[in-house]
Amino acid sequence: MTRPERTIHALVRAGVTHVVGIPDNTSGPLFDAVKVHPTIRLVTVTREGEAFALASGLWLGGASPLVVIQNTGLLESGDAIRGTATRMGAGIPMVITGRGYANMLAAGIGLDEERTPALLTRPDIDSTALLTEPTLQAWGIPFRTCAGEDDPVAAIADTVTAARERGHPSALILLRPLD
Prior knowledge:
The chain is α/β, with parallel strands linked by helices. The protein has a single domain (3-174), classed as 3-Layer(aba) Sandwich (Rossmann fold), CATH 3.40.50. Helix content is 48%, strand content 16%. The protein has nine helices and six strands. It has a six-stranded parallel β-sheet, with helices on both faces. Helix 1 packs across helix 2 (28-35) and helix 3 (48-60) packs parallel to helix 5 (78-88). The protein is globular and about 50 Å long. It starts with a helix and ends in a 5-residue tail after the last strand.
């Protein structure tokens, strides 16, 4: 069984009814698996902020959505997360793929690095990676990171459970492939 298939089984066990978001290179295999799944509905959006508005509406209607976006889209989604999902107390789990982390780490820049203008404008660094975790912290969204040998299937299932238990959005920053 492939990892995307294992992920689908974990989502079904967790009661996820919808996957909402925009695919990228990392999340693409999951979107492909959901697209042909008989019970989990795939809802693609044109902007990531729409993902949170739609997921919040689904949640309000009794569904159990999972938002899957890239970290660049997380930054675009701020008001939808703050003004809708968080204020509603919607236990929406999110999987955020981590654009820019590999280059940042390869350049020897750690996540605890001070975000100076010089660092944020370096042409070899995608500042999105530098801003993802501080943004989640500022918004009060608990998160964990899945990288290296971590099992993404278990991490996604744990994030779904955490969001439901907290009654608040929770995030997984996915830094490894799903396939």
